[in-house]
Design goal:
This protein has 301 residues and is mainly β. It has helices at residues 235-254, 258-268, 294-299; strands spanning 2-4, 9-10, 12-13, 21-23, 28-33, 59-65, 73-83, 86-91, 106-113, 116-119, 122-125, 129-134, 144-145, 149-150, 153-155, 166-170, 178-184, 198-199, 201-210, 219-221, 225-232, 270-275, 281-288. A hairpin with a 5-residue loop joins strand 22 (270-275) and strand 23 (281-288). Helix 1 crosses helix 2. Residues 36, 131-132, 155, 157, 182 line the site of one calcium ion (CA).
Length: 301
């Protein structure tokens, strides 16, 4: 299996980027990802102020996907996320939802033993996820630091971006130019304190290209849901974007009026908070697959 090493990283998603390797449709490949600190946190005695924040949130890649052209959709299946044997979490003054209450920085090293994270003696089952994953943004969208989420993906910090899920991204550049990092061994919706269980990982992926289809925001498909992942300056704005797109997909996929689709959304779509601690907040609108399967959604695009 091809391995993309963890020392090939970017800090900005740009329209034009030099790729580090190429993969083909249907090929399984492994991506070595760094934790969000680029492994700078190794002990609980470490002062968070000493960290070089210029190298935070590295994303491994970009990876060129053969056959992906602007105007296509890139499909990324997450086969596996194998996490390291320890990770970390931290609270930092003025960071996170309750940042105003944080009086001092605290770092915690958290060991992972088999499928459990050990937190103050408690065993918490791990549920690994990818925090940062995205493609080259559209030229008109500009450049995005890897710490931000937007139309191209990026720092979406969405718990459903996990083993077994499939992501869909708009392709804005030849080869799509996929990059990823910032895995979490587990995280709660919202990521309230600004970190998940930050950890290095080896991510196994498989890619496909859906020709001549265009989407506005990334989509994640799980066993039960098709979720539109939208970001914005506030929960209201992100929720508006995610809902607006969900209603459009219900309308076109089920061939109903916009008004009926809006009502149906109110009956079946769940809005879930992905994260509210990054420069933009992220919300996902979850459409049950028994209402709108992904193939119906795609066919109608
Ligand atoms: Ca993140
Ligand atoms: Ca993180």
């Amino acid at each position: 299996m091809k391995v993309i090493p963890g020392d090939k990283v970017i800090y900005t998603f740009k329209h034009d980027m030099d790729y580090v390797d190429k993969v083909s449709v249907g090929e399984r490949f492994k991506v070595v990802t760094n934790d969000c600190w680029f492994q700078q946190i190794k002990s609980e005695n470490q002062a968070i102020e000493q960290i070089d924040f210029n190298v935070v949130n590295p994303a491994t890649g970009p990876i060129y996907v053969e056959g992906a052209e602007p105007g296509d959709v890139l499909k990324v299946k997450i086969i596996d996320i194998a996490v390291a044997d320890y990770g970390s979490a931290a609270v930092i003054p003025n960071e996170g939802l309750l940042g105003d209450k944080v009086t001092k920085p605290v770092v915690k090293i958290i060991r992972v033993e088999e499928d459990y994270a050990i937190f103050n003696g408690m065993k918490l089952s791990i549920d690994p996820m990818i925090g940062v994953i995205g493609v080259a943004p559209a030229l008109e969208d500009g450049e995005w630091p890897t710490g931000s989420p937007w139309h191209h993906g990026g720092n979406m910090d969405t718990t459903d971006i996990k083993i077994g899920s499939t992501l869909y991204f708009p392709v804005n550049q030849r080869g799509a130019l996929l990059a990823l990092g910032d895995c979490h061994a587990r995280m709660g919706d919202g990521e309230v304190c600004v970190t998940g269980l930050e950890i290095g990982a080896e991510v196994t992926l498989e890619v496909d290209v859906i020709k001549h289809k265009s989407i506005t925001w990334p989509i994640v498909e799980t066993d039960e849901y098709v979720m539109i992942i939208a970001s914005g300056d506030s929960l209201e704005k992100a929720s508006y974007e995610a809902t607006s797109q969900a209603v459009e997909y219900l309308k076109s996929g089920l061939k109903m009026s916009w008004e009926d689709a809006y009502m149906l959304a109110s009956l079946v779509v769940d809005l879930k908070i992905s994260q509210l601690v990054d420069p933009k907040v992220t919300v996902r609108a979850a459409i049950p697959k028994y209402v709108l399967p992904i193939n119906k959604l795609m066919e109608a695009l």
